[in-house]
């Protein structure tokens, strides 16, 4: 694998760049602050820390949105983050809303992907309900690695006003989290979207984040061919091609929905 970690000076530059970005987005929108979903995972934890640094605790509202598949540990960590940051937060159970959706359309019952994505979209609705009510922006918590391969729910966790850590690979997220003082047990925590029971990100992706980051940096975002990337990273070409395929197939998630070209 290649080393995508930043130096200490680069970490501080990223920290200042992201906090300034958050302030600029809020100011440009004339908003009174931000809302973000807190999952107990490293991405939302880092965004929470940076948002408080950028705006102050009073301008940050956290939402903890557990479902029946959410682990007690992750929800406890989410509340712990909010309490450590001294921000206002609410805990809202989303499963009654999901149950209502399935009552209206029972054909989707048991479809892990469809129901899991519905949970993500219900969370987005709550984020915007609070944000609209309080004149705030919704902060995204997605990182560069997951965005590149489409590992997010369209109009779910992808439905946000901005992505403060959207230019950081997963390994860089963990590194910056440690730099800003996130506790080690959270910085090193196994990543999971918890859209269904016992789900982990790396299991679903079928690849470790270290390998994914390296392939993205050298091939998808970088100049190397499939063969050169495989040789450099000592991974088989099929793995590199699979990551490239995930990137190509998920392009629609990273762009505005298309419309027909204007007629002359």
TrEMBL record:
Query: What reaction does this catalyse?
Result: deamido-NAD(+) + NH4(+) + ATP = AMP + diphosphate + NAD(+) + H(+)
**Family of the protein in this entry:** Belongs to the NAD synthetase family.
The record, for HAMAP family, names:
NadE_ammonia_dep (MF_00193)
- This one is known as NH(3)-dependent NAD(+) synthetase
Q: Which domain of life is it from?
A: Archaea
Q: What does this protein do?
A: Catalyzes the ATP-dependent amidation of deamido-NAD to form NAD. Uses ammonia as a nitrogen source.
Q: Which UniProt keywords apply?
A: ATP-binding, Ligase, Magnesium, Metal-binding, NAD, Nucleotide-binding
GO CC entries: cytoplasm
One Pfam family hit: NAD_synthase
**Assembly and interactions?**
Homodimer.
Ranges of residues in domain NAD/GMP synthase: 17-257
Tell me which species this is from. Natrinema altunense
Show the CDD domains listed in the entry: NAD_synthase
Pathway(s) where this gene product acts: Cofactor biosynthesis; NAD(+) biosynthesis; NAD(+) from deamido-NAD(+) (ammonia route): step 1/1
What positions does the entry give for ATP binding?
Answer: 37-44, 141, 170, 192
């Amino acid at each position: 694998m290649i080393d995508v970690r930043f130096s200490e000076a680069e970490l501080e530059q990223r920290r200042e760049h992201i906090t300034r970005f958050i302030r600029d987005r809020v100011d440009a929108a004339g908003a009174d602050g931000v809302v973000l979903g807190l999952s107990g995972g490293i991405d939302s934890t880092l965004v929470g820390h940076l948002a408080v640094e950028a705006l102050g605790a009073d301008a940050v509202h956290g939402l903890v949105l557990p479902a029946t598949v959410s682990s007690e540990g992750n929800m406890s960590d989410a509340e712990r983050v909010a309490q450590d940051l001294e921000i206002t937060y609410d805990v809202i159970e989303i499963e009654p809303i999901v149950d209502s959706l399935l009552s209206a359309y029972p054909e989707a019952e048991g479809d892990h992907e469809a129901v899991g994505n519905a949970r993500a979209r219900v969370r987005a609705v709550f984020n915007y309900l609070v944000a609209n009510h309080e004149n705030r922006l919704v902060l995204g918590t997605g990182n560069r690695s997951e965005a590149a391969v489409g590992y997010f729910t369209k109009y779910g966790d992808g439905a946000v006003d901005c992505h403060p850590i959207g230019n950081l690979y997963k390994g860089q997220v963990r590194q910056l989290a440690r730099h800003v003082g996130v506790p080690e047990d959270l910085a090193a925590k196994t990543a999971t979207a918890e859209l269904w029971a016992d789900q982990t990100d790396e299991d679903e992706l079928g690849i470790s984040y270290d390998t994914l980051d390296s392939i993205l940096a050298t091939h998808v975002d970088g100049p190397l061919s499939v063969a050169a990337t495989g040789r450099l990273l000592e991974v088989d070409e099929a793995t590199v091609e699979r990551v490239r395929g995930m990137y190509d197939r998920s392009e629609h998630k990273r762009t505005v929905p298309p419309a027909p070209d204007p007629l002359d």
